[in-house]
Batch of 2 targets.
Target 1
Amino acid sequence: MQIDTGGQFTQMDSACEDATVPVGGNPVIFDPTSTYEVSDLVVVHPGTQILVTAYNLAENARIVVHGASVGQRPVSNGTACCRTDGPNPTLLNRKSADVLFRSPMRLGGQVWELSPTNDRLLISLPGNYVFVLNDSAYFGDLQVEYQRFPLLPMPDVYYAGAGVPTMPV
């Protein structure tokens, strides 16, 4: 499976840069104009974590976090489009990330997902991720974005794969 994610590799960093467009200060995973159920690549670097927040998820909507194995391929200077949807295609002038494999993330027997009853998820495990919406019919009012933070202590219930909270109720 070769999915062009629009991410870019740099010579100075082995990880892929995020290829999301900030809206309101936070990088966006899905917004009301999204049309494809698989997001761009989101990278969690060592020493950081991201808090993913979903707004207006419909009753049966689910967004599953997939871990991604990423390769790269050369792209000639600004002549190849990595994203052709919309009026302004994105041109790359470095190397484009390719998702070679992906599968749903599971830790502690729990699939990492966002739902109407679980609309926030904290991911602190370094890696490459894509987010997959279960049906494009849920686009419209849906907004999913994230904030990046340094590793900080947070309540267990926010962490992906944490399962049952360990803190007293």
Target 2
Amino acid sequence: MFNKNILFLDPGGSELKGILINEHNCKIIIKESVENSGIFNGYINNAEIFANSFQLLLNKIKEKTKKPVHKIYLIIGGICIEHKFLNFTYKNLNKTISHDILNLITEKIIENEKKQNNIVIKINDIEYNVDNVILENPAGLFAQNVTFKKIISYSNFNLINNLFKMIEKHNIEIEEVYPSIFCSAELMLTEDERILGAMVLDIGAHKIEWGYYFKNKLINCGSIPFSMDHITYKIAKILKTDIKQAFHIKHENIYATLEADNFCNWINYTSNNINEHIIESELIKLINPELENLVKQINIVSSQFSKHLNLIALSGQGALLKRIQKLLQKNLNINIKISQSADPKFDALNGAILFYINHDRQKKDNLFKRIINIVKNHL
């Protein structure tokens, strides 16, 4: 019987976030976060900050729950991950496609990425074309020619390796690594929505990740260079304050303002060194160009799938900017679904728990463990 506790850990954005669950019943024990993950631009910019933040997170969890952490499921997203297509063909194969052949292909993909100092996080099969017949699983079939279409999600090897080293110092095992876009889709999209055609947009601190699902499969994914941090920097510049103050202003005022049907006329913010009145026109001038630019970029991406696109779902803290919903509906003429989470910064983690329950809890083959072993054997 399971009796261990799993910490789902998200180091993305400006905070290190975690949700602890019981492995036996999958019930949430606690949600917790600490400021400053130490990760910047896809690298551990400050290892000491990450180590201290991780220690602080563990201490807060232990203090509040009196429970240990046995395993970690790591969520990687934003600027820490990339995705790309692989489309390759075996000609004149003239043999049965065995599981050994499929495993050999996986190992070749992993090896090729390792040469570029990348580590594969997930390999997502799109389709197999076996002698001009489209199939989901070709194992056991005799084939002359076969084309494989896959999406691989990968991260910088040094980032993952450093995360492993710092986490394993606490004698905690990293069991699995999830790309955040899969987690967001699990949380935001129903099976019917994924079958009919839908996009999920995870609006994070550093960039937006998007994934397009059709026939219940991830067909395409990528990112949009829109940064919630950019809005923070603008606030800091306008109010002549530091980034930390601007971050709190954004969370306490900007989100709440944009949720209303009409902008508040005045927002008061008082701190040790700020006593400002931010009028409506200033907020509009600040936010509007950013949102209009975002809508244009989303329109460019979504137009690729307009034939089978029935819904766009928004997750992450940026989903709180409900004016995005109105602009998207107006410009794209499509249904928009917004995260209903009490705290959207935990969206990816909530989705990761659902993904674990729905797909990984009973699985016997852990691809990520195989990937780690292959990479370590070649170091």
